[in-house]
Amino acid sequence: MKIEKLITKLHNRTPAILGSENFSKYAVLVPLIEKNEDIHVLFEVRALDLRRQPGEICFPGGRIDNTDKDERHTAVRETSEELGIQESSINNVFPLDYMISPFGTIVYPYVGIIEHPEQMKPNPSEVGEVFTIPLSFLKEIEPDEYKINFKVEPEQNFPFDLIVGGENYNWQARTMDEYFYYYDDKVIWGLTARILKHFLEVVHEE
């Protein structure tokens, strides 16, 4: 390869997250509605017959399809399908920070306002129920916080003889914060709680 061709290849590429082609990519929406002269955050309870995470609380969203125009379109499309509303009734959609989970997924969260929430007809095959929490309530509370520790376990035939330190190598294991929010009989945790905490931090910024 000539140096000119190498320079052209490097000049024309757009950097991405290394290895992102091996990650599953999802987009979700933090839906906001106006209710009783207050802003409420809407949550879903996943249907009990779903294969993954039945009965857990989440925001509407799903895997990014090749036919989606972009991550924002995925979040709006999935919200429309799950809540039984027109895409045109989801307005003022803005991006939050995207996140890379330690479980092989990249999640693109958005926040948007749902007009005419009384017209919602949740899809029973995906959504067991929906409920809302006043934003004023969420802004006044702090979640419980716990630590999850990840342990490094190389496979049985790992070539320890090829690395300095061998079996005594000092692996840098990491810790992840896990948050829990409570409202009446509802417990919000996991990815949904992480996105919620980030959203609340954004709206709290001066």
Would you write up a description of this structure?
There is one protein chain. The chain has 206 residues and is of the alpha+beta class. Strands 1, 2, 3, 4, 5, 6, 7 and 8 form an 8-stranded mixed sheet that branches. A hairpin with a 4-residue loop joins strand 6 and strand 7. The longest helix is centred in the last third of the chain and has 15 residues. It is globular, with a radius of gyration of 21 Å. The model has no long low-confidence stretch (mean pLDDT 93). Its cofactor is Mg(2+); Mn(2+). Keywords: Hydrolase, Magnesium, Manganese, Metal-binding.
Task: Provide the fold topology.
Blueprint: H1 3-11, E1 24-35, E2 38-46, E3 57-58, E4 61-63, H2 71-83, E5 90-95, E6 99-100, E7 105-114, E8 127-134, H3 135-138, E9 144-149, E10 175-183, E11 186-189, H4 190-204
Parallel strand pairs: 1-7
Antiparallel strand pairs: 1-2, 1-4, 2-3, 2-8, 5-7, 6-7, 9-10, 10-11
Q: Over all CA atoms, what is the radius of gyration? A: 21 Å
Low-confidence stretches: none
**What's the story with the biggest beta sheet?**
8 strands, mixed
Shape: globular
Average pLDDT rating = 93
- What's the number of extended β-strand segments? 11
Strand content: 25-35%
Which structural class do you get from the secondary structure elements?
alpha+beta
Helical content class: 10-25%
Number of helices: 4
Give helix and strand order, one letter per element, not per position.
HEEEEHEEEEHEEEH
Q: How far apart, in Å, are the first and last alpha carbons?
A: 53 Å
Pfam families: NUDIX
Keywords: Hydrolase, Magnesium, Manganese, Metal-binding
GO molecular function: 8-oxo-7,8-dihydrodeoxyguanosine triphosphate pyrophosphatase activity
Protein name: NUDIX hydrolase
